[in-house]
Amino acid sequence: MGIDQSVLDILKSLYYYVVNMIVRHLDQALAQHFEKYKEVLVLLGARQVGKTTIVKKIFPQADYLVVDNEPIKNALERYDPAVYKQLLNANSDFVVVDEIHKLSDPGRAAKIFFDQLPQYKLIITGSSAFNIKNKSSESLAGRKIDYHLYPLSLSEYLVQNGLENALSLLPMQKLVAGEKAERVFKQYDHREILNNILIYGLYPAMQSHPSDSVYLTNLIDSVVFKDLVELSLLENKSAALSLLKLLAHQIGSLVNYAELASKLGISARTVKRYIELFEQSFIIFTVKPYSTRKRDEIAKMPKVFFYDLGLRNALINNFEHVDTRGDAGQLFENFIVSELLKYNYYGNFGYSFNYWRTKSGSEIDLVLSRFGHKTIAVEIKSQQQRINQAFLSRYPESRMVVISRDNYWV
What angle do CA 408, 377, 302 make, to 5 degrees? Predict the structure, then answer.
């Protein structure tokens, strides 16, 4: 017995209502892409950050070709425009190819759509592997515009949970404008929300799996290693996992390739390559030192941060409450740096992110710089503390800001 059409209509309406409640900073940029550009829209990001959800919301009438579907994959692997056309609805304007990196030559497939089927506007979603495959970037040179989707920002989290009415880029806007953060009364418990995010992170699925450590632990294989293993990019998965765990233990700390290599029994070159792969997979990001080549400034070793703290805590199997942890300060620093990175990207602020440290130990957690604009030195503290004046003494034209748990959301 089939389902009544009226029930199907209600379920469909409910689905679109729920999807449209999932607002993201990228919504407008994606919706306006084909008004501004003819190039392929490429949406990249780690697995499970919501790429398919946002594309289905913005382009609900598009034809969807899911490469996970074996017949679809086989047809696309023929690299024949006549075969591609048979897969599509002649009345469709948009075509979405989901997980295109699973093809042997994703760039070639995308190039066929762009060059030989120009009546269709092409949208590609994929994890980092799309760019890891060098052939793809060469095939689409000058034919694509990339967009990056990250785990939720705090603003997206608050809006999706009905705690705020509209998305905001205020933390970055106020930082750039030099506005002093004033304490603002909120109807919700900001401290408790922050404590939960520091432990369980901001992957969209955590909205329906709140405080679910089992879900996060299972996410490690599907998010971190699935593409890298499928592409045979990790010749030693065990060493790669051990490396990622070591990096998880030292968030916000300097990365010494030789030291990590010695601990793992692999070469420093392999350590560096694996870290680059983790970066390309949107699992971690590195922040390089700020230096004007003064002799006592550290100028080489990067710091490492995770895009999502829930995944980081799953790697080290520690979901203890913030108040009982020895790494609470590191968690807060990682949270602030990753939040500002998201707002900087989504708002097109254009700032470079660095840290500053001298060999004698003076340090600034984050230095934001942009040509023609005042450099901003950011101290990130779990609580208000005395400001380190060493950077201002050396770079008096810069501006110092302290971000703490008392003012981070304003």
Answer: 100
User: Rounded mean pLDDT of 156-171?
Assistant: 92
Q: What is the CA radius of gyration of the chain?
A: 23
Question: Is the Cβ–Cβ distance between 76 and 97 less than 8 Å?
Answer: yes
Quick one: what percent of the chain has pLDDT higher than 90? 60
The highest-confidence range among 79-83, 137-141, 213-217, by mean pLDDT, is 79-83
Q: What does the pLDDT look like over 318-357, one tens digit per residue? A: 999 999 999 999 999 999 999 999 999 999 999 999 999 8
CB 300 within 8 A of CB 205: no
Question: Which pTM value belongs to this model?
Answer: 0.90
Contact 289, 357 (CB under 8 A): yes
* Phi, psi dihedral angles at 77 (to 5 degrees): -70, -10
pLDDT digits (tens, 9 = 90+) for 46-57: 888 999 999 999
Q: What is the 3-state secondary structure (H, E, C) of 268-318?
A: HHHHHHHHHHHHHCCCEEEEEECCCCCCCECCCCCEEEECCHHHHHHHCCC
Query: How is residue 114 written in tokens?
Result: 């762009």
* Lookup result for tokens 């009364």: 185
Cβ atoms within 10 Å, residue 109: 24
Taking CA 26 as the corner, what is the angle to CA 22 and CA 28, rounded to the nearest 5 degrees? Answer: 95
Name the band, by pLDDT with cuts 50, 70 and 90, for residue 11. very low
CB 381 within 8 A of CB 406: no
Contact 169, 343 (CB under 8 A): yes
Which two tokens mark 298?
């550290």
Distance CA 58, CA 53 (A): 9
Which residues in 311-328 are b (16+ Cβ under 10 Å) and which e? bbbbbeeebeebeebebb
**Interatomic CA distance for residues 362 and 89, integer angstroms:** 62
Question: Considering the domain 5-148 in this protein, what is its CATH number?
Answer: 3.40.50.300
CA angle 51, 54, 58 (to 5 degrees): 135
Domain ranges of the chain: 5-148, 154-403
In degrees, to the nearest 5, what angle opens at C-alpha 97 toward C-alphas 96 and 103? 175
Task: Please tell me the predicted confidence (pLDDT) of residue 134.
Answer: 46
- How far apart, in whole angstroms, are the C-alpha atoms of residue 141 and residue 265? 39
User: Chain centroid to CA 350: how far?
Assistant: 16
